[in-house]
Design brief:
By secondary structure, this protein is mainly β. The protein is built from no helices and 18 strands. It has a four-stranded mixed beta sheet with strand order 2-9-8-6, with no helix packed on it. The N and C termini lie far apart (161 Å).
């Protein structure tokens, strides 16, 4: 005689969520909902959701980086399997730049006019508000602008290297007529 022993020593097969990529929504990263894994066991069939665990829960704030999430599934016999997927949070969004708006000035000479405009502002979801010195302009406030329209480009670059450009127009007009100097009135005696 002999004895045949049938054992269940294999863990379930896990199907993880797909790798997830999310955009950062704040300096600390982003809250990520990555969905549920499933597991199937040769003996037990579908593994109940309560027997599938994650080392980092869904709807957790993930830092700006790539994080590996480990999924563990346990069958009725206690056999377990593990599989992984990644959650990548990145900062690919440039800052929001707000300009002073279009400016119109009257020419003060044939060269145009020195035009002063309000400083722009910039904010970023990850980096926050920008200091004035971290915002650049293609033409500085106070520069002399030629008669006509000049586009000023305002740029801000966040710490991740994302740049946003916004523009406004400075228009210098010559809408004043010339100043006429007439000779003094003349009075003469008839001859």
């Amino acid at each position: 005689t002999f004895t045949v022993t049938v054992e269940d020593s294999s863990g379930p097969v896990i199907t993880t969520p797909d790798n997830v990529t999310e955009e950062a929504t704040a300096a600390n990263g982003a809250t990520v909902d990555y969905g549920a894994a499933t597991a199937e066991d040769a003996v037990d069939g579908a593994i109940a959701a309560g027997s599938i665990t994650y080392d980092i829960a869904t709807n957790t704030v993930f830092a700006i980086d790539t994080t590996t999430v480990t999924v563990t599934a346990v069958d009725a016999t206690g056999n377990q399997s593990q599989d992984t997927f990644t959650v990548t949070v990145s900062d690919n969004t440039g800052p929001t730049v707000t300009t002073s708006g279009n400016v119109t000035e009257e020419a003060t000479s044939a060269n145009g006019a020195a035009v002063t405009y309000d400083a722009a502002s910039a904010t970023d979801l990850v980096d926050g508000a920008f200091a004035a010195g971290d915002i650049s302009y293609s033409h500085d406030s106070g520069d002399t602008f030629a008669i006509g329209a000049t586009v000023v480009t305002v740029s801000a670059t966040d710490n991740a290297g994302n740049t946003t450009d916004e523009t406004f127009t400075v228009t210098v007009e010559d809408s004043s007529g010339p100043v006429i100097t007439t000779p003094d009135n003349v009075t003469e005696e008839a001859t």
